[in-house]
Amino acid sequence: METESLVETLEAAGLSPYQATAYVALLDLGTASATDVAEASGVPAPRIYDVLRSLEELEYIETYEEGSLRARAHSPSGVLDDLRGRASRLEAAAEEVEDRWEQPELEAGGASIVTRFRTVIERAETFIEEATHQILLSTTTANLQRLAPALRAATERGVSVRVSVHTENGESVPAPDLFDDICREARHRPLPAPFVALADRRQASFAHHPDSYDQYGVLVNDRTHTYVFYWYFLTCLWEPWETVYDAAGDGLPIEYLDVRHLVRDLRELDWERDPVRLRVEGHDTATGEECTVEGTVVDVRVPFASDASTGFELAGQVTVDLDVDGEHVSVGGWGAIVEDVEGTRLTVVDAPGLE
């Protein structure tokens, strides 16, 4: 490093211009009188004494009398520790500035646009770690492996996790053991797709595929906006694709991702003759509080009849009515308002026609 650059760097580290030039001059001189330091550094002679004493207070040098005031540089170890400490603080400050720019706090009802995928996946990991009910994830195999510890922990605490893995042309179908202990069900989409992570129907983390023309990410902490990503996940990333892993296997109980999936199966059963018992975890629409109810299906209400097999023709109000110990309880899907319960996890626990 040139002398001028070293002086500028020392100034950036906190020394005054006179302190920096005097110290660099003394490093070159080793031991010198105050007059010689002033001459070598260009510090005005009347100022050199104050400058040297201030450097001594900082423990950069020491002064002594030998006919006149003389100075010598200390062993640089202390100076190096000081400079490295300053450098560490500057580096930490730089990282904090970057984090605050890339990862704005998501207040309730908030949404943010970010520019780097790292921000998107780190926030997705946080959403997964905080989830209590449901996680829906669209990702590559590599990013799934990165998120696997958080997904495994979520599964262990009872969160319902479903994963849609997308692969490029020529990539093989993911092996089932990739999903062991990290999700309830996985599907494979053999086409590129965006990264999408949804947690508890409130938080969303989205990023375009790396080859997309648009390169930005979206972070959401809001039920209404997350609902849009939810339907995109169901219709484009989940429903059309083949199941490659199912932790539940055959038989009961059967857990449904959406009330529309449940209704699709119920419409094929003679539930009026062979009673279907359903457990619903969700929220009381009157109070917003979490609740769990279990009862027998007594009615299925859909906006119109259809022979379509996907179940997504039921885009309007879809309601399942239950008899819960003699009390009528109506159950709707995401965003239910007129029903008694918004179902977030629907599980058939007894159904002769599904056994």
From TrEMBL:
Residues 112-348 form the Transcription regulator TrmB C-terminal domain. Residues 10-69 form the Transcription regulator TrmB N-terminal domain. InterPro entries: TrmB-like, Tscrpt_reg_TrmB_C, Tscrpt_reg_TrmB_N, WH-like_DNA-bd_sf, WH_DNA-bd_sf. It holds the Pfam family Regulator_TrmB. Belongs to the transcriptional regulator TrmB family. This is TrmB family transcriptional regulator. It comes from Halobaculum marinum.
